[in-house]
Amino acid sequence: MDQRLLVSLLLWVAFSTSAFAQHSWQWMTPSDTLNKQRFWGTIGAGAIIYSGAAYGLYQTWYKDYELTKFRTFNDAREWQQMDKAGHFLTTYSEARWLYDGARWTGLDKKRSLWLAGGISMFLQSTLEVMDGYSAEWGFSWSDMGFNALGMGLFVTQESLWEEQRILLKISFNRRLPSSTPLLSTNGEATSSLRMRHLELYGSSIAERFLKDYNTMTIWASVSPKAFAPESRWPAWLNIAVGYGSENLYGGFSNTWSDDQGNSFVLPEADYPRYRQLYLSFDINLKKIPTKRPLLRSALSILNVIKIPAPALQWNTLGQVKFHPLHF
Question: If DSSP codes are grouped into helix, strand and coil, which group holds residue 73?
Answer without folding.
Answer: coil
